[in-house]
Amino acid sequence: MANTAHPAPQGSSFSDLARFLRESYQNSFGDCPHPSSGLLSIRIDDRGKRDVSSDFCRMSVLIQESAKDRCTLYLTNPPLDDEVTELILGKGGTITGSRPDMYVEIPLLIKEVVFVRGLAKAIRRIRRPRQGERYPVPNWWWVCPRTADSLDRLADRLMEYRSTRRHEPWRLARAPASPGKPAAASSASVTGSSGIAAAKKPSQPADDDDIFRLLGGE
Question: Is residue 1 in some structural domain?
Answer without folding.
Answer: no
